Protein 1
Amino acid sequence: MVLATSRNLTPLPAGHPCLGCDVRSVAVCGVLECAMLAQLRLMGCAQKLKPGEPLFHEGDESKQVYTLTKGVLKLYKLLPDGRRQVTGFMFPGDFLGISVDDAHAFTAEALADTQLCKFSRGRFDSFVEEHPEMERELYRVAAHELAAAQQQMVLLGRKTAAERLASFFLALLDRAERASGASERFVKLPMSRSDIADYLGLTKETVSRVLAMLKKRRLIRLEALDVIEILDREGLTDLAEGLMGE
Amino acid sequence: MVLATSRNLTPLPAGHPCLGCDVRSVAVCGVLECAMLAQLRLMGCAQKLKPGEPLFHEGDESKQVYTLTKGVLKLYKLLPDGRRQVTGFMFPGDFLGISVDDAHAFTAEALADTQLCKFSRGRFDSFVEEHPEMERELYRVAAHELAAAQQQMVLLGRKTAAERLASFFLALLDRAERASGASERFVKLPMSRSDIADYLGLTKETVSRVLAMLKKRRLIRLEALDVIEILDREGLTDLAEGLMGE
DNA sequence: CGTTCGATTGAGCTTTCTCAAGCACAGTGG
DNA sequence: CCACTGTGCTTGAGAAAGCTCAATCGAACG
């Protein structure tokens, strides 16, 4: 639910801290010239996170922006009594840097071994200053995120548990296919059942039960605890859109 | 849940279609020079809507952008079976124009007699082209919207019915106070109970019942069916943040 | 081989929803 | 001026989806 989408590939100069990443692009610059991408990357320095390690907390001052190059992050907000809402997951290629009033609106925490390319906000801002087309791109990505957030509001406000799970798996599938550029049958779930529950506004028990139901209906299969196979994409799509209820 | 916040006031030239509006500003240009605001306004032409009249539908091609000058709009998305999620309300000063792939992500419908200042997207884009600081402002507003959307996800995913209503009233109160620049005790509800329900992920019956409960707890009072008085703002805030449950 | 931690399953409960009836107020026509 | 009607709001009773609490399972790891 934050700046997203991986794009064009860009070569990195030898010796750069981001060398060895999964990704050779800067997501937010999908439309920018390769020269510009390389230049931006040069300004960054590498940062690594272990599973469970936070990158920053909700309310922290936002002094850096990041590109995720390897791993997965979950983004979440907490209520004072501990209720958690996961607002999104970040994958390689995603850009992390939108903030209001220079404060982070959510906590970002690694789900796996994670690697980021970090830019100081000042340097990033001056880079954007020098490349006005970057500004447009930032706006485009924010607009995209906003549309995704509205879609998630429909899910949280109006969909049943089964519809939420179906929508979630299809969204992960779409993303995997966009990343690989090929059609996929298997979807990796790098997050726990609790994380899925907190993203979909459910409990982990309900997630487990609905998962069992989707298996019994032959819509999906569990290849492993954290890998699902999509058996009936059309059926899953109908379910996700609420067409199975009647 | 779409571009928002009213700001600086700008005089409009005599004879302009927007003359007679509630607002003398273009929200999205909060930081821009007055000269620029006036110039943008000159490019616009007026449009009026009656209650219940749609401005555009979800999926329609997005050929215009708008500034709301008078009235209220509700923005919503539908599931195929008719379930509705209201993603936001628009008030005078709000800007309506963020879209992805040139298609509207939601339906916009008037709740009252409404007046807008309309710009063709092409002219708006070339105006933005000529005023790069406008691009930054668009981005800033989109980022603000995104933060609000994430807040709404917490509400929809994790809050109880009472917490949702309390949060909603406080958000309306905040907005009213920002608009008037003064402290307020009364909040106008220009939308129906069903609209509130569809915004908060509830049913209209639950909204009514929770309203009755809030009255009994002396947190609010109904001045009229569509005007609430805030009797205990602190209590309402505690409730909205989930601090009353324990 | 035992321990641990996440995932699953079960039973009962709570919140919210659904369906239905009653109420209040605005607009209309006699 | 008042009954009539429609629409939206409120209230009630029963149902259901999903939650809570608790027990069990199972894979990973020491």
Protein 2
Amino acid sequence: MRYEKGHRSATRQRIVEVAARRFRESGVAAVGLTGVMADAGLTNGAFYGHFESKEALVCDALCHALDEREADFVASGAAGADLESSLRGYLNAAHRDNPGIGCPSAALLPEIGRHADATRAAFTRHLVTFVDLIAGLLPAGEPAQAHATATALFGLVVGTLQLARAVSDPQLSDQILEAGIQAGLALGLGAPVDAPS
Amino acid sequence: MRYEKGHRSATRQRIVEVAARRFRESGVAAVGLTGVMADAGLTNGAFYGHFESKEALVCDALCHALDEREADFVASGAAGADLESSLRGYLNAAHRDNPGIGCPSAALLPEIGRHADATRAAFTRHLVTFVDLIAGLLPAGEPAQAHATATALFGLVVGTLQLARAVSDPQLSDQILEAGIQAGLALGLGAPVDAPS
DNA sequence: TGTACATCAGTGAACGCGCGTTCACTGATGTAC
DNA sequence: TGTACATCAGTGAACGCGCGTTCACTGATGTAC
């Protein structure tokens, strides 16, 4: 072997991980491929030996980040997590202050909506999985209603974390996080709402 | 007068309006000044006669879009709007499908968090105003609690609209909007939650 | 065992292009005398 | 009334730069005979 077995796939993986971090930190449009490759210890020319286009990397990096967070979610669930600890695990200062290793939806959601169909379809598949996982944290009830509530909870925490990142007043930012937690609890555990007729 | 009175400020206003639309459609980072100026019927060189930098335009365009939506909100409130009609006025297919004339937060929130302090401070001021307006739609109660709920409602609708735009399945997108409306009603009208201790 | 060739991940320069920004200039209209 | 000059919004070319993408080449290691 010219390179040890798995060298090529390890290189590719490294590029995906760097991209997943940098896209979340700066947004997809603001990140250049030369910088990503340099961070991965390579030169720009090697990129197209691994990916067809920047859009293909966007799709892979997004899926990688979503898979990682899904694994974290499942792992913490195995430790007996409930809705409140999940909310607090998401809406906290550390997550707010480290978008590069955080939720890709909070960092990139509007941008995802402007990307290629394949990228949006990949996001859609992951979203469905996430909603299932969130629904599992809710008190037993009608499954359709649990899914609707879980979907709204996802929207709530994503929007709330974005708000906490956008405001310039640190104290207000903390209040936003806490308001999101309380609202998430009210939504998830509160008086059940009728499913849409 | 070489130009009719108000010509200069009218030109500036035209640039701001074009930018506010294009930023929301494509994201700030993906929009170039040459294109904005061309849409406003001008050439690139005229830009710096009106703005100090692209960042200054971003701040002005964001404020313009936020002011416009605030005015709409107040106008519809004068017509006797309640929480449900406000939620339906936001979480609907027309809004989802026309980001260029829609909520700047839904289109740009993660990006705002990466912009200059002045831009984030301007956003923060507008957010506070919005939260007050939303709180006014809630049943009378403790003001601090109404503010917290209103903040979460804002996060909920922003995140939900972004989700509806990002997914590639139109039917799922419609379900997301409806789930957001139901959750917004539950949050706003449902069992009151204690304020954080 | 030694030589010629194949493989292939990665290099680094180059492509055309658009970016944000600068600046000398235009030209229509005003004022000064 | 006529001429010289001031004003200023807008023009359009140019600046250096980084973008996504392409491609001829390198060099280390494998295989063939």
